[in-house]
Request: fold
Amino acid sequence: MTMRHRAIDSFHPGQYGVPMRALTFLIMALLLAGCSLSGTDGTVLPMVKDCNLHRQACTLTDGNRRITLNIAPKPIPVAKPLTVTVTLHGIKAKKVQLDISGINMYMGYNRVDLHPVNETTWQGRAILAFCTNEKMIWRVTVLITTPDDQLIQAPFQLVTERNRRYPEPAQ
Reply:
């Protein structure tokens, strides 16, 4: 028997089970701690659910800060280019992004950078992924990085329904 075979023959599955489980737990704990430590300097505002982005721009107000999100065209189509406009009042930003995520179904990573139009308005292009669910609930979050690197998250809810024609906005 060679040295290699002796090592394999003498290995018992339970022999290293406890240390390997402890090592795995330690690695997972460190990874999760790293994830939870990122973004601790941020503010997450309450989600806007009572405004229909298919019909109008929606505004989240927090004290003297206002974040207005407008998505065009209206009604908002799925799997077609969208123009996203964010207007800020009472907030200075050095970077603005839009994060689109599925609430009732994971839809992958969908984050776009918006570009400044002027001091208060940021704009960019996005797309809603096609979903096979009859009803899809989206979290459309405006991510604002302030000049002092604080993160403000302003979430808006958007609901799309397959095969549904959304009424045209009132004129």
Remarks:
- The chain is about 15% helix and 40% strand.
- Helices lie at 3-9, 17-37.
- The chain has two domains: 3-37, 42-161.
- Residues 3-37 form one domain.
